[in-house]
Specification:
By secondary structure, the chain is an alpha+beta fold. Helix content is 31%, strand content 31%. The strands form two sheets. Strands 2, 3, 5, 6, 7, 8, 9, 10 and 11 form a nine-stranded mixed sheet that branches. InterPro entries: Acyl_CoA_acyltransferase, GNAT_dom, Ribosomal_N-acetyltransferase.
Amino acid sequence: MTLDWEFHPLVGERVTLDLLRPDDLDDLAALQGDPDVCRYLLYETRSREQVAEILERDAAATRLAAKGDYLQPAIRSETGRFIGTMYFELHSVEDRTAEIGWILAPHAQGHGYATEAARLLLALAFDELGLHRVQAELDPRNTASVRMCERLGMRHEGHFVEHMWLKGEWTDTGHYALLEREWQAARGSEIAPRSDA
């Protein structure tokens, strides 16, 4: 496993994961202040002042070396426009595990941007860092995130009923995960020649 990783932009075909910048404040505040976006998140809508503090904190998260280290990079479109954020946290160095998450602006949803961004982080996790397992936890009512986990090849491992008291109600938690060997097998099948070719 290769740790003590310092952030560098992760570039895909249509999206780039890059550090948050001060000029992202308006877009990030709109995202985290939107009740529909925050509906299935662990926090209520945030004020512009709260988002400014979070932006400063998360922009400084640039290193993965120990349990609890995290990244919260911006997702940027082909034109460099801010369209959301990814989340990646080391859960255990010894067990080589991490958690992944995402938030995408409503205008950017339905185009595969979040899936591409998540694949960039999974490639980092498995191909560069040598992690064994990456998991995602979500509210099962968030069907878009459930479908994304499925597109990423993540396995549905559990459904915890009324798992937490959140925003005035008991909410369930869904658990999804992907192992390094599953990631490598899926990548191998993507590049293997088709038998009908």
